[in-house]
Amino acid sequence: MKTDVLLSEASFFKRSTQYSMKMMEWVDANYHHKCVLERLAAVLYLSPSHISHLFHHETGGTLSEYLTTRRMHEASKLLKSTSLPIQEISKQIGYNSASYFTRVFKRHKGITPFHYRQAKP
């Protein structure tokens, strides 16, 4: 009986690792969409709360944090390598509002997108 429980727990962890990896890969490819959590849940045939729980359990972070980090990474690249307006960059990475994007960027990077772009080497 105890062996069955251990095998079941091992199976859960293997499965959650698999889901977390799939989630990260999917977010990396689809970060620019809106409603990422809902879309991801539909792709994995799981509820949004369940995928959030699996992701947090496996990685120790939240799916929202991962998504924001991915979006900020892409925004940083676009700010340094293009002259696209900040409004356009915010749309390309999945934000409706440039002002919201600016607040998130500043909270994440400690500097506004405008000043980040000005500081590029």
UniProtKB/TrEMBL annotation:
Identify the keywords attached in UniProt to this record, alphabetized. DNA-binding, Transcription, Transcription regulation
Which parts of the chain span the membrane according to its record? Answer: none
Where in this chain does the record put each HTH araC/xylS-type domain?
21-119
Which Pfam family, an example, fits this chain? HTH_18
* Alphabetical list of InterPro entries matching this protein: Homeodomain-like_sf, HTH_AraC, Tscrpt_reg_AraC-type_HTH
**Would the keyword Transcription be found if you checked this record's keyword annotation?**
yes
Q: Which Gene3D superfamilies match?
A: Homeodomain-like
What PANTHER family does its record include?
ARAC-FAMILY TRANSCRIPTIONAL REGULATOR, HTH-TYPE TRANSCRIPTIONAL REGULATOR EXSA
Q: Which protein, by its recorded name, is this?
A: AraC-like DNA-binding protein
User: From what organism does this protein derive?
Assistant: Paenibacillus qinlingensis
